[in-house]
């Protein structure tokens, strides 16, 4: 998924289109935990999408270990 198609970033790209100062947009992105550099590259792939898939897979394996810890 590209930055422009990710709903988390699409709203900020729309702000640029309507004339909101870029520095203000980037500051808001930092406050919300997003990478402001991606505002300059809307066609770039979203790095979080790759991390999310990896984290989702890791969460599945953690579920089994948590139930084992509760039994002890």
Automatic annotation (TrEMBL):
<dbReference type="GO" id="GO:0071203">
    <property type="term" value="C:WASH complex"/>
</dbReference>
<feature type="region of interest" description="Disordered">
    <location>
        <begin position="36"/>
        <end position="72"/>
    </location>
</feature>
<dbReference type="GO" id="GO:0006887">
    <property type="term" value="P:exocytosis"/>
</dbReference>
<dbReference type="GO" id="GO:0030041">
    <property type="term" value="P:actin filament polymerization"/>
</dbReference>
<comment type="similarity">
    <text>Belongs to the CCDC53 family.</text>
</comment>
<dbReference type="InterPro" id="IPR019309">
    <property type="entry name" value="WASHC3"/>
</dbReference>
<dbReference type="Pfam" id="PF10152">
    <property type="entry name" value="CCDC53"/>
</dbReference>
<protein>
    <recommendedName>
        <fullName>WASH complex subunit 3</fullName>
    </recommendedName>
</protein>
């Amino acid at each position: 998924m590209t930055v422009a198609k990710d709903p988390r970033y699409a709203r900020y790209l729309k702000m640029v289109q309507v004339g909101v100062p870029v520095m203000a947009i980037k500051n808001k992105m930092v406050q919300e935990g997003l990478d402001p550099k991606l505002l300059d590259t809307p066609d770039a792939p979203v790095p979080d999408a790759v991390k999310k898939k990896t984290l989702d897979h890791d969460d599945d394996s953690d579920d089994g270990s948590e139930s084992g810890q509760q039994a002890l």
